[in-house]
Amino acid sequence: MSDDIQRMTTELARNPRSLIFLTLGEVLRQRGQLTAALAVAEAGLLRYPSLPDAHDLVGRVRSDRGEGDEAFDAWTVALRLNPAHAGALRGLAFLAFREGDLERAERHLRAALSVTPDDPSLRNALQKVIQHGGQRTLPDRPSPLRDREQSLLVDGRGRLFGGRLRGVDGGDVSEVVAAEIAGVMREAGRVTRILALGAWRGLSMECGGSGALAHFAPPTDSTVLLVMGEPGTPVGRLALEAEASAASARRWLERYQ
Amino acid sequence: MRALEPWVESPLTEFLAESSARLVLLMTSSGQVIAQHGFTRSLDVMSVAALGAAIVASTGELARVMDAGSLGHVVHQGKHGGVLLAPFPLGEKIWIGLIVFGQDTSLGLVQVFFHTMAKQIREAAPGSRSDEQILAEQFESELDRSLRRLFGR
Amino acid sequence: MSNRYDAVVAAITRVGGVRSACVVDAIDGIVVAESSMVGTDPAPLAALAASLTRKLDGLLSVAGHGPPRVIHLEAELGHLMLKPVSPELLVVAVTDTETNLGLLRLALTDAAERLE
Protein backbone atom coordinates (compact mmCIF):
# COMPACT_ATOMS: atom_id res chain seq x y z
CA MET A 1 0.00 0.00 0.00
CA SER A 2 1.47 3.37 -0.94
CA ASP A 3 2.02 5.98 1.71
CA ASP A 4 -0.73 8.16 0.30
CA ILE A 5 -3.30 5.41 0.44
CA GLN A 6 -2.11 4.44 3.91
CA ARG A 7 -2.44 8.02 5.11
CA MET A 8 -5.91 8.51 3.62
CA THR A 9 -7.15 5.16 4.91
CA THR A 10 -5.97 6.03 8.40
CA GLU A 11 -7.63 9.42 8.24
CA LEU A 12 -10.89 7.87 7.05
CA ALA A 13 -10.78 5.30 9.83
CA ARG A 14 -10.23 8.05 12.37
CA ASN A 15 -12.95 10.26 10.90
CA PRO A 16 -15.48 8.32 8.82
CA ARG A 17 -17.22 11.59 7.92
CA SER A 18 -14.11 12.90 6.18
CA LEU A 19 -14.46 13.82 2.53
CA ILE A 20 -11.07 12.25 1.95
CA PHE A 21 -12.98 9.23 0.65
CA LEU A 22 -13.37 11.11 -2.65
CA THR A 23 -9.60 11.31 -3.15
CA LEU A 24 -8.96 7.82 -1.79
CA GLY A 25 -11.58 6.27 -4.08
CA GLU A 26 -10.15 8.05 -7.10
CA VAL A 27 -6.57 7.00 -6.30
CA LEU A 28 -7.67 3.39 -5.89
CA ARG A 29 -9.56 3.58 -9.16
CA GLN A 30 -6.55 4.95 -11.01
CA ARG A 31 -4.45 2.12 -9.59
CA GLY A 32 -6.99 -0.38 -10.91
CA GLN A 33 -8.09 -1.50 -7.43
CA LEU A 34 -11.69 -1.30 -8.50
CA THR A 35 -13.25 -3.45 -5.80
CA ALA A 36 -11.65 -1.38 -3.05
CA ALA A 37 -12.46 1.83 -4.92
CA LEU A 38 -16.11 0.85 -5.17
CA ALA A 39 -16.30 -0.04 -1.48
CA VAL A 40 -14.83 3.34 -0.53
CA ALA A 41 -17.10 5.21 -2.96
CA GLU A 42 -20.28 3.49 -1.85
CA ALA A 43 -19.48 3.89 1.83
CA GLY A 44 -18.94 7.60 1.20
CA LEU A 45 -22.18 7.79 -0.75
CA LEU A 46 -24.05 6.32 2.19
CA ARG A 47 -22.83 9.20 4.34
CA TYR A 48 -23.25 11.85 1.65
CA PRO A 49 -26.16 10.80 -0.60
CA SER A 50 -26.71 14.38 -1.76
CA LEU A 51 -23.10 15.00 -2.72
CA PRO A 52 -22.75 15.09 -6.53
CA ASP A 53 -19.02 14.31 -6.33
CA ALA A 54 -19.78 11.07 -4.50
CA HIS A 55 -22.13 9.95 -7.29
CA ASP A 56 -19.55 11.02 -9.85
CA LEU A 57 -16.93 8.85 -8.15
CA VAL A 58 -19.29 5.87 -8.15
CA GLY A 59 -19.95 6.54 -11.83
CA ARG A 60 -16.23 6.49 -12.67
CA VAL A 61 -15.58 3.29 -10.75
CA ARG A 62 -18.63 1.57 -12.21
CA SER A 63 -17.65 2.64 -15.68
CA ASP A 64 -14.14 1.18 -15.20
CA ARG A 65 -15.73 -2.04 -14.04
CA GLY A 66 -17.66 -2.18 -17.32
CA GLU A 67 -20.96 -1.53 -15.54
CA GLY A 68 -22.29 1.04 -17.97
CA ASP A 69 -25.89 1.02 -16.80
CA GLU A 70 -24.92 1.58 -13.18
CA ALA A 71 -22.43 4.27 -14.17
CA PHE A 72 -25.12 5.97 -16.20
CA ASP A 73 -27.45 5.92 -13.18
CA ALA A 74 -24.79 7.40 -10.90
CA TRP A 75 -23.91 10.23 -13.29
CA THR A 76 -27.56 10.96 -13.94
CA VAL A 77 -28.13 11.37 -10.20
CA ALA A 78 -25.06 13.60 -9.94
CA LEU A 79 -26.49 15.81 -12.67
CA ARG A 80 -29.85 15.95 -10.97
CA LEU A 81 -28.10 17.23 -7.86
CA ASN A 82 -25.91 19.60 -9.82
CA PRO A 83 -26.89 20.13 -13.48
CA ALA A 84 -23.50 21.77 -14.13
CA HIS A 85 -21.37 18.94 -12.77
CA ALA A 86 -18.54 18.73 -15.28
CA GLY A 87 -17.41 15.27 -14.14
CA ALA A 88 -20.85 13.77 -14.62
CA LEU A 89 -21.23 15.46 -18.01
CA ARG A 90 -17.87 14.07 -19.04
CA GLY A 91 -18.85 10.61 -17.84
CA LEU A 92 -22.13 10.64 -19.73
CA ALA A 93 -20.29 11.90 -22.81
CA PHE A 94 -17.92 8.96 -22.51
CA LEU A 95 -20.79 6.47 -22.28
CA ALA A 96 -22.52 8.06 -25.26
CA PHE A 97 -19.28 7.99 -27.25
CA ARG A 98 -18.77 4.34 -26.40
CA GLU A 99 -22.25 3.57 -27.71
CA GLY A 100 -21.58 5.50 -30.89
CA ASP A 101 -24.03 8.29 -30.07
CA LEU A 102 -21.68 11.07 -31.13
CA GLU A 103 -24.26 13.81 -31.10
CA ARG A 104 -25.09 13.16 -27.50
CA ALA A 105 -21.42 12.81 -26.56
CA GLU A 106 -20.67 16.15 -28.20
CA ARG A 107 -23.58 17.82 -26.45
CA HIS A 108 -22.42 16.59 -23.03
CA LEU A 109 -18.83 17.63 -23.70
CA ARG A 110 -19.82 21.10 -24.82
CA ALA A 111 -21.93 21.43 -21.68
CA ALA A 112 -18.95 20.32 -19.58
CA LEU A 113 -16.66 22.79 -21.35
CA SER A 114 -19.06 25.61 -20.66
CA VAL A 115 -18.52 24.83 -16.96
CA THR A 116 -14.73 24.32 -17.10
CA PRO A 117 -13.61 26.01 -20.36
CA ASP A 118 -9.89 25.61 -19.63
CA ASP A 119 -9.90 21.85 -19.11
CA PRO A 120 -7.54 20.51 -21.80
CA SER A 121 -8.75 16.92 -21.42
CA LEU A 122 -12.29 17.99 -22.22
CA ARG A 123 -11.06 19.89 -25.28
CA ASN A 124 -9.17 16.83 -26.47
CA ALA A 125 -12.21 14.65 -25.93
CA LEU A 126 -14.42 17.05 -27.85
CA GLN A 127 -11.92 17.16 -30.68
CA LYS A 128 -11.90 13.39 -30.81
CA VAL A 129 -15.67 13.25 -30.96
CA ILE A 130 -15.77 15.86 -33.70
CA GLN A 131 -13.16 13.92 -35.68
CA HIS A 132 -15.46 10.95 -35.60
CA GLY A 133 -18.19 13.22 -36.87
CA GLY A 134 -17.88 11.81 -40.35
CA GLN A 135 -19.75 8.81 -39.04
CA ARG A 136 -22.45 10.87 -37.46
CA THR A 137 -25.27 8.49 -38.12
CA LEU A 138 -26.44 6.82 -35.00
CA PRO A 139 -26.07 3.10 -34.72
CA ASP A 140 -29.23 1.10 -34.20
CA ARG A 141 -30.38 1.76 -30.72
CA PRO A 142 -30.42 -1.37 -28.65
CA SER A 143 -33.80 -2.74 -27.75
CA PRO A 144 -35.11 -1.39 -24.46
CA LEU A 145 -36.14 -4.89 -23.49
CA ARG A 146 -32.96 -6.65 -24.52
CA ASP A 147 -33.82 -10.20 -25.46
CA ARG A 148 -36.93 -10.65 -23.35
CA GLU A 149 -39.51 -12.53 -25.40
CA GLN A 150 -43.20 -11.74 -25.16
CA SER A 151 -42.90 -8.24 -23.78
CA LEU A 152 -43.86 -4.76 -24.93
CA LEU A 153 -42.87 -1.25 -23.93
CA VAL A 154 -45.57 1.29 -24.72
CA ASP A 155 -46.32 4.91 -23.86
CA GLY A 156 -49.60 6.44 -22.73
CA ARG A 157 -50.63 7.15 -26.29
CA GLY A 158 -50.18 3.57 -27.40
CA ARG A 159 -46.84 4.14 -29.15
CA LEU A 160 -44.72 1.02 -29.20
CA PHE A 161 -41.11 1.55 -28.06
CA GLY A 162 -39.90 -2.00 -28.15
CA GLY A 163 -40.55 -5.68 -27.77
CA ARG A 164 -42.85 -8.02 -29.57
CA LEU A 165 -45.89 -10.01 -28.59
CA ARG A 166 -47.37 -13.02 -30.25
CA GLY A 167 -51.01 -13.89 -29.77
CA VAL A 168 -52.35 -17.31 -28.88
CA ASP A 169 -52.43 -18.24 -32.58
CA GLY A 170 -48.77 -17.23 -33.03
CA GLY A 171 -49.52 -14.05 -35.00
CA ASP A 172 -47.89 -10.73 -34.14
CA VAL A 173 -50.31 -8.74 -32.00
CA SER A 174 -47.83 -6.11 -30.77
CA GLU A 175 -49.51 -3.08 -32.34
CA VAL A 176 -53.07 -3.94 -31.40
CA VAL A 177 -52.12 -4.84 -27.86
CA ALA A 178 -50.06 -1.62 -27.57
CA ALA A 179 -53.17 0.36 -28.46
CA GLU A 180 -55.16 -1.46 -25.76
CA ILE A 181 -52.39 -1.04 -23.19
CA ALA A 182 -52.75 2.73 -23.36
CA GLY A 183 -56.35 2.40 -22.15
CA VAL A 184 -55.34 -0.05 -19.42
CA MET A 185 -52.65 2.35 -18.24
CA ARG A 186 -55.10 5.23 -17.98
CA GLU A 187 -57.57 3.04 -16.16
CA ALA A 188 -55.00 1.76 -13.66
CA GLY A 189 -53.97 5.36 -12.95
CA ARG A 190 -57.59 6.39 -12.50
CA VAL A 191 -58.35 3.48 -10.17
CA THR A 192 -55.47 4.25 -7.83
CA ARG A 193 -56.14 7.99 -7.94
CA ILE A 194 -59.82 7.77 -7.10
CA LEU A 195 -59.42 5.00 -4.54
CA ALA A 196 -56.55 6.96 -2.94
CA LEU A 197 -54.08 4.09 -3.34
CA GLY A 198 -51.16 6.25 -4.46
CA ALA A 199 -49.23 5.49 -7.64
CA TRP A 200 -49.71 2.06 -9.16
CA ARG A 201 -46.64 -0.17 -9.21
CA GLY A 202 -47.75 -3.29 -11.00
CA LEU A 203 -50.71 -5.13 -12.36
CA SER A 204 -50.81 -8.85 -12.87
CA MET A 205 -53.48 -11.16 -14.19
CA GLU A 206 -54.05 -14.70 -15.22
CA CYS A 207 -55.45 -15.06 -18.72
CA GLY A 208 -58.49 -17.18 -19.32
CA GLY A 209 -58.25 -19.98 -21.84
CA SER A 210 -54.50 -20.02 -22.29
CA GLY A 211 -53.64 -19.85 -18.59
CA ALA A 212 -50.79 -17.48 -19.46
CA LEU A 213 -49.80 -14.75 -17.02
CA ALA A 214 -49.47 -11.07 -17.79
CA HIS A 215 -47.71 -8.45 -15.71
CA PHE A 216 -47.71 -4.70 -16.30
CA ALA A 217 -45.12 -2.44 -14.69
CA PRO A 218 -44.66 1.31 -15.19
CA PRO A 219 -40.94 2.03 -15.88
CA THR A 220 -41.81 5.76 -15.88
CA ASP A 221 -44.93 7.84 -15.33
CA SER A 222 -45.64 7.90 -19.04
CA THR A 223 -44.81 4.35 -20.10
CA VAL A 224 -45.86 0.85 -19.28
CA LEU A 225 -44.21 -2.48 -19.79
CA LEU A 226 -46.14 -5.69 -20.41
CA VAL A 227 -44.42 -8.99 -19.79
CA MET A 228 -46.15 -12.28 -20.52
CA GLY A 229 -45.35 -15.54 -18.76
CA GLU A 230 -46.03 -19.12 -19.72
CA PRO A 231 -48.85 -20.95 -17.93
CA GLY A 232 -47.62 -22.13 -14.57
CA THR A 233 -45.07 -19.36 -14.13
CA PRO A 234 -45.15 -18.27 -10.48
CA VAL A 235 -46.76 -14.84 -10.24
CA GLY A 236 -43.97 -13.50 -8.02
CA ARG A 237 -41.27 -14.62 -10.41
CA LEU A 238 -42.94 -12.95 -13.35
CA ALA A 239 -43.27 -9.76 -11.30
CA LEU A 240 -39.54 -9.85 -10.53
CA GLU A 241 -38.68 -10.43 -14.18
CA ALA A 242 -40.93 -7.54 -15.13
CA GLU A 243 -39.24 -5.31 -12.56
CA ALA A 244 -35.83 -6.14 -14.01
CA SER A 245 -37.07 -5.43 -17.53
CA ALA A 246 -38.68 -2.21 -16.31
CA ALA A 247 -35.38 -1.06 -14.80
CA SER A 248 -33.63 -1.76 -18.08
CA ALA A 249 -36.39 0.02 -20.01
CA ARG A 250 -36.15 2.98 -17.65
CA ARG A 251 -32.45 3.41 -18.40
CA TRP A 252 -33.13 3.07 -22.09
CA LEU A 253 -35.84 5.72 -21.93
CA GLU A 254 -33.64 8.11 -19.97
CA ARG A 255 -31.02 7.83 -22.65
CA TYR A 256 -33.08 8.01 -25.78
CA GLN A 257 -36.28 9.88 -24.93
CA MET B 1 -70.31 21.85 -24.52
CA ARG B 2 -72.17 25.06 -23.79
CA ALA B 3 -73.03 26.45 -20.40
CA LEU B 4 -74.96 29.46 -19.24
CA GLU B 5 -73.02 29.62 -16.01
CA PRO B 6 -69.24 29.71 -16.38
CA TRP B 7 -68.63 28.01 -13.02
CA VAL B 8 -70.41 24.91 -14.31
CA GLU B 9 -67.99 24.46 -17.20
CA SER B 10 -65.03 23.00 -15.36
CA PRO B 11 -66.96 20.34 -13.38
CA LEU B 12 -68.92 19.41 -16.48
CA THR B 13 -65.78 19.13 -18.61
CA GLU B 14 -64.24 16.79 -16.05
CA PHE B 15 -67.42 14.75 -15.86
CA LEU B 16 -67.50 14.33 -19.63
CA ALA B 17 -63.88 13.21 -19.72
CA GLU B 18 -64.25 10.71 -16.88
CA SER B 19 -67.68 9.29 -17.60
CA SER B 20 -67.55 9.09 -21.42
CA ALA B 21 -71.17 10.25 -21.45
CA ARG B 22 -72.57 11.01 -24.90
CA LEU B 23 -75.23 13.59 -24.12
CA VAL B 24 -75.60 15.70 -21.02
CA LEU B 25 -78.21 18.21 -20.01
CA LEU B 26 -78.04 20.14 -16.76
CA MET B 27 -81.26 21.91 -15.85
CA THR B 28 -83.23 23.24 -12.95
CA SER B 29 -86.28 21.37 -11.74
CA SER B 30 -88.39 23.87 -13.63
CA GLY B 31 -86.71 22.92 -16.89
CA GLN B 32 -84.36 25.88 -17.27
CA VAL B 33 -81.35 24.55 -19.13
CA ILE B 34 -78.03 25.43 -17.52
CA ALA B 35 -75.63 23.50 -19.75
CA GLN B 36 -75.66 20.94 -22.50
CA HIS B 37 -73.23 18.71 -24.29
CA GLY B 38 -73.82 16.69 -27.42
CA PHE B 39 -77.16 18.11 -28.54
CA THR B 40 -77.14 19.68 -31.95
CA ARG B 41 -80.64 21.07 -32.19
CA SER B 42 -82.45 23.38 -29.82
CA LEU B 43 -85.63 21.46 -30.45
CA ASP B 44 -84.06 18.27 -29.01
CA VAL B 45 -82.95 20.14 -25.93
CA MET B 46 -86.36 21.67 -25.46
CA SER B 47 -88.13 18.30 -25.63
CA VAL B 48 -85.58 16.48 -23.51
CA ALA B 49 -85.50 19.16 -20.82
CA ALA B 50 -89.27 19.29 -20.58
CA LEU B 51 -89.62 15.50 -20.46
CA GLY B 52 -86.72 15.03 -18.06
CA ALA B 53 -88.04 17.61 -15.61
CA ALA B 54 -91.48 16.03 -15.85
CA ILE B 55 -90.16 12.53 -15.15
CA VAL B 56 -88.25 13.71 -12.11
CA ALA B 57 -91.31 15.62 -10.89
CA SER B 58 -93.63 12.64 -11.38
CA THR B 59 -91.13 10.27 -9.73
CA GLY B 60 -90.92 12.62 -6.77
CA GLU B 61 -94.69 12.71 -6.58
CA LEU B 62 -94.84 8.91 -6.77
CA ALA B 63 -92.39 8.72 -3.86
CA ARG B 64 -94.51 11.15 -1.90
CA VAL B 65 -97.73 9.23 -2.52
CA MET B 66 -96.02 5.96 -1.60
CA ASP B 67 -94.45 7.62 1.42
CA ALA B 68 -91.11 6.34 0.15
CA GLY B 69 -88.98 9.38 0.90
CA SER B 70 -86.80 10.12 -2.11
CA LEU B 71 -86.48 7.71 -5.02
CA GLY B 72 -83.10 9.10 -6.01
CA HIS B 73 -81.91 8.54 -9.54
CA VAL B 74 -84.05 7.33 -12.41
CA VAL B 75 -82.28 4.94 -14.78
CA HIS B 76 -83.45 3.57 -18.09
CA GLN B 77 -81.25 0.84 -19.52
CA GLY B 78 -81.46 -0.08 -23.18
CA LYS B 79 -79.67 -2.51 -25.41
CA HIS B 80 -77.07 0.01 -26.53
CA GLY B 81 -76.75 2.16 -23.44
CA GLY B 82 -78.81 3.99 -20.91
CA VAL B 83 -80.25 7.23 -19.60
CA LEU B 84 -79.69 8.55 -16.10
CA LEU B 85 -81.90 11.23 -14.63
CA ALA B 86 -80.30 12.46 -11.46
CA PRO B 87 -81.67 15.27 -9.30
CA PHE B 88 -79.31 16.94 -6.85
CA PRO B 89 -79.69 19.80 -4.40
CA LEU B 90 -78.03 23.13 -5.07
CA GLY B 91 -78.74 25.58 -2.30
CA GLU B 92 -82.48 25.88 -2.00
CA LYS B 93 -83.06 24.46 -5.44
CA ILE B 94 -82.97 21.12 -7.13
CA TRP B 95 -80.96 20.71 -10.29
CA ILE B 96 -81.31 17.76 -12.60
CA GLY B 97 -78.69 16.00 -14.68
CA LEU B 98 -79.84 14.04 -17.69
CA ILE B 99 -77.11 11.81 -19.05
CA VAL B 100 -77.20 9.52 -22.05
CA PHE B 101 -74.40 6.96 -22.12
CA GLY B 102 -73.30 4.13 -24.38
CA GLN B 103 -71.67 0.74 -23.98
CA ASP B 104 -68.17 2.22 -23.74
CA THR B 105 -68.91 3.20 -20.15
CA SER B 106 -71.22 1.94 -17.40
CA LEU B 107 -74.00 3.16 -15.17
CA GLY B 108 -71.67 2.86 -12.19
CA LEU B 109 -69.00 5.09 -13.72
CA VAL B 110 -71.56 7.65 -14.81
CA GLN B 111 -73.10 7.75 -11.33
CA VAL B 112 -69.77 7.97 -9.53
CA PHE B 113 -68.54 10.86 -11.64
CA PHE B 114 -71.96 12.51 -11.58
CA HIS B 115 -71.74 12.63 -7.77
CA THR B 116 -68.30 14.21 -8.09
CA MET B 117 -69.61 16.78 -10.57
CA ALA B 118 -72.59 17.64 -8.38
CA LYS B 119 -70.27 18.19 -5.43
CA GLN B 120 -67.93 20.37 -7.50
CA ILE B 121 -70.86 22.41 -8.79
CA ARG B 122 -72.09 22.97 -5.24
CA GLU B 123 -68.63 24.12 -4.23
CA ALA B 124 -68.24 26.37 -7.26
CA ALA B 125 -71.69 27.94 -7.06
CA PRO B 126 -71.59 31.58 -5.96
CA GLY B 127 -72.64 31.55 -2.31
CA SER B 128 -74.94 34.50 -2.34
CA ARG B 129 -76.85 33.78 -5.49
CA SER B 130 -80.37 35.13 -5.39
CA ASP B 131 -81.81 33.05 -8.17
CA GLU B 132 -85.10 34.40 -9.13
CA GLN B 133 -87.94 32.06 -8.45
CA ILE B 134 -89.16 30.62 -11.69
CA LEU B 135 -92.86 30.40 -11.48
CA ALA B 136 -94.76 27.75 -13.32
CA GLU B 137 -96.16 30.26 -15.76
CA GLN B 138 -92.63 31.43 -16.59
CA PHE B 139 -91.50 27.96 -17.52
CA GLU B 140 -91.89 28.31 -21.28
CA SER B 141 -90.28 31.73 -21.50
CA GLU B 142 -87.36 30.65 -19.27
CA LEU B 143 -86.81 27.60 -21.42
CA ASP B 144 -86.88 29.62 -24.63
CA ARG B 145 -84.50 32.20 -23.23
CA SER B 146 -81.98 29.63 -22.04
CA LEU B 147 -82.12 27.74 -25.31
CA ARG B 148 -81.45 30.88 -27.30
CA ARG B 149 -78.40 31.54 -25.19
CA LEU B 150 -77.19 27.93 -25.34
CA PHE B 151 -77.44 27.77 -29.09
CA GLY B 152 -76.33 31.34 -29.70
CA ARG B 153 -79.63 32.48 -31.17
CA MET C 1 -80.68 -13.92 -1.99
CA SER C 2 -78.80 -10.94 -0.59
CA ASN C 3 -77.73 -13.02 2.43
CA ARG C 4 -75.69 -15.19 0.13
CA TYR C 5 -73.84 -12.18 -1.23
CA ASP C 6 -73.45 -10.66 2.20
CA ALA C 7 -71.93 -13.89 3.51
CA VAL C 8 -69.46 -13.89 0.63
CA VAL C 9 -68.23 -10.36 1.24
CA ALA C 10 -68.10 -10.96 4.99
CA ALA C 11 -65.79 -13.92 4.39
CA ILE C 12 -63.45 -11.77 2.28
CA THR C 13 -63.24 -9.07 4.93
CA ARG C 14 -61.99 -11.67 7.42
CA VAL C 15 -58.64 -11.59 5.60
CA GLY C 16 -56.44 -9.13 7.50
CA GLY C 17 -55.99 -5.70 5.98
CA VAL C 18 -59.09 -5.76 3.76
CA ARG C 19 -60.65 -2.30 3.73
CA SER C 20 -63.53 -3.02 1.42
CA ALA C 21 -64.99 -6.07 -0.29
CA CYS C 22 -67.75 -6.00 -2.89
CA VAL C 23 -69.75 -8.18 -5.18
CA VAL C 24 -70.12 -6.08 -8.31
CA ASP C 25 -72.44 -6.11 -11.29
CA ALA C 26 -69.72 -6.25 -13.94
CA ILE C 27 -71.85 -4.80 -16.72
CA ASP C 28 -73.32 -1.82 -14.89
CA GLY C 29 -70.38 -1.34 -12.52
CA ILE C 30 -72.62 -1.09 -9.48
CA VAL C 31 -72.50 -2.66 -6.03
CA VAL C 32 -74.47 -5.85 -5.47
CA ALA C 33 -73.24 -6.44 -1.93
CA GLU C 34 -70.46 -4.86 0.07
CA SER C 35 -68.71 -4.67 3.38
CA SER C 36 -66.47 -1.67 3.87
CA MET C 37 -64.66 0.16 6.62
CA VAL C 38 -66.39 3.30 7.81
CA GLY C 39 -65.72 6.16 5.44
CA THR C 40 -65.00 3.94 2.45
CA ASP C 41 -67.45 4.44 -0.41
CA PRO C 42 -67.90 1.16 -2.30
CA ALA C 43 -69.57 2.78 -5.34
CA PRO C 44 -66.33 4.07 -6.95
CA LEU C 45 -64.65 0.75 -6.19
CA ALA C 46 -67.40 -1.16 -7.98
CA ALA C 47 -67.48 1.17 -10.98
CA LEU C 48 -63.72 1.29 -11.42
CA ALA C 49 -63.18 -2.43 -10.84
CA ALA C 50 -65.72 -3.25 -13.54
CA SER C 51 -64.18 -0.72 -15.90
CA LEU C 52 -60.65 -2.04 -15.34
CA THR C 53 -61.83 -5.59 -15.91
CA ARG C 54 -63.49 -4.56 -19.14
CA LYS C 55 -60.32 -2.86 -20.39
CA LEU C 56 -58.17 -5.89 -19.53
CA ASP C 57 -60.70 -8.21 -21.10
CA GLY C 58 -60.45 -6.18 -24.31
CA LEU C 59 -56.66 -6.38 -24.27
CA LEU C 60 -56.60 -10.13 -23.73
CA SER C 61 -59.22 -10.65 -26.37
CA VAL C 62 -57.14 -8.99 -29.15
CA ALA C 63 -54.27 -11.32 -28.24
CA GLY C 64 -56.58 -14.34 -28.46
CA HIS C 65 -56.78 -15.09 -24.73
CA GLY C 66 -59.92 -15.61 -22.72
CA PRO C 67 -61.16 -13.12 -20.11
CA PRO C 68 -58.97 -12.50 -17.05
CA ARG C 69 -59.31 -14.96 -14.18
CA VAL C 70 -57.70 -12.98 -11.38
CA ILE C 71 -56.48 -9.39 -11.51
CA HIS C 72 -54.14 -7.82 -8.97
CA LEU C 73 -53.27 -4.14 -9.01
CA GLU C 74 -50.47 -3.20 -6.66
CA ALA C 75 -50.16 0.43 -5.61
CA GLU C 76 -48.07 2.51 -3.27
CA LEU C 77 -50.70 2.49 -0.51
CA GLY C 78 -52.55 -0.76 -1.05
CA HIS C 79 -53.81 -3.46 -3.33
CA LEU C 80 -56.87 -4.03 -5.45
CA MET C 81 -57.63 -7.65 -6.25
CA LEU C 82 -60.59 -8.88 -8.23
CA LYS C 83 -61.93 -12.13 -9.47
CA PRO C 84 -64.54 -12.36 -12.21
CA VAL C 85 -67.26 -14.87 -11.34
CA SER C 86 -69.02 -14.64 -14.70
CA PRO C 87 -69.33 -12.00 -17.41
CA GLU C 88 -71.94 -10.36 -15.18
CA LEU C 89 -70.38 -10.60 -11.74
CA LEU C 90 -67.09 -9.76 -9.99
CA VAL C 91 -65.80 -10.07 -6.47
CA VAL C 92 -63.43 -7.29 -5.47
CA ALA C 93 -61.32 -6.34 -2.49
CA VAL C 94 -59.21 -3.33 -1.58
CA THR C 95 -56.55 -3.83 1.06
CA ASP C 96 -53.71 -2.10 2.80
CA THR C 97 -50.10 -2.82 1.88
CA GLU C 98 -49.57 -5.53 4.51
CA THR C 99 -52.27 -7.96 3.44
CA ASN C 100 -51.35 -11.58 2.78
CA LEU C 101 -52.01 -11.65 -0.95
CA GLY C 102 -52.05 -15.45 -1.13
CA LEU C 103 -54.82 -15.62 1.46
CA LEU C 104 -56.73 -12.87 -0.28
CA ARG C 105 -56.50 -14.67 -3.59
CA LEU C 106 -57.85 -17.85 -1.97
CA ALA C 107 -60.67 -15.91 -0.33
CA LEU C 108 -61.69 -14.35 -3.64
CA THR C 109 -61.50 -17.69 -5.43
CA ASP C 110 -63.62 -19.28 -2.73
CA ALA C 111 -66.11 -16.40 -2.95
CA ALA C 112 -66.35 -16.78 -6.71
CA GLU C 113 -66.99 -20.52 -6.39
CA ARG C 114 -69.78 -19.89 -3.91
CA LEU C 115 -71.43 -17.46 -6.29
CA GLU C 116 -71.12 -19.56 -9.44
Give me the secondary-structure topology.
The complex is a heterotrimer of chains A (257), B (153) and C (116).
Chain A: H1 3-14, H2 20-30, H3 34-47, H4 52-64, H5 68-81, H6 86-98, H7 102-115, H8 120-131, E1 151-155, E2 160-164, H9 174-194, E3 200-208, E4 213-217, E5 223-229, H10 235-256
Antiparallel strand pairs in A: 1-2, 1-5, 3-4, 4-5
Helix pairs in contact in A: 1-2, 2-3, 2-4, 3-4, 4-5, 4-6, 5-6, 6-7, 7-8
Chain B: E1 2-3, H1 6-19, E2 23-28, E3 33-37, H2 42-65, E4 74-78, E5 81-90, E6 93-102, H3 107-124, H4 139-150
Antiparallel strand pairs in B: 1-3, 2-3, 2-6, 4-5, 5-6
Helix pairs in contact in B: 1-3
Chain C: H1 2-13, E1 18-25, E2 30-36, H2 42-62, E3 66-75, E4 78-86, E5 89-95, H3 101-115
Antiparallel strand pairs in C: 1-2, 1-5, 3-4, 4-5
Helix pairs in contact in C: 1-3
CATH topology of the largest domain in chain A: Serine Threonine Protein Phosphatase 5, Tetratricopeptide repeat
What's the end-to-end separation of chain C, in Å?
13 Å
Radius of gyration of chain C over all CA atoms, rounded: 13 Å
Q: What kind of sheet is the major sheet of chain C?
A: 5 strands, antiparallel
Taking all residues together, what is the mean pLDDT of chain C? 93
Label the overall shape of chain C: globular
Number of domains of chain C: 1
At CATH level 3, the topology of chain C is Beta-Lactamase
Please report the total strand number of chain C as a whole number: 5
Helical proportion of chain C, percent range: 40-55%
**Which radius of gyration of chain A do the C-alpha atoms yield?**
22 Å
**CATH H level of the largest domain in chain A: which superfamily?**
Tetratricopeptide repeat domain
Biggest sheet architecture of chain A:
5 strands, antiparallel
Q: How would you describe the oligomerization state of the chains in this entry?
A: heterotrimer
Total beta strands of chain A: 5
Structural class label of chain C: alpha+beta
Just name the CATH architecture of the largest domain in chain A.
Alpha Horseshoe
Instruction: State the helical fraction of chain A.
Output: 55-70%
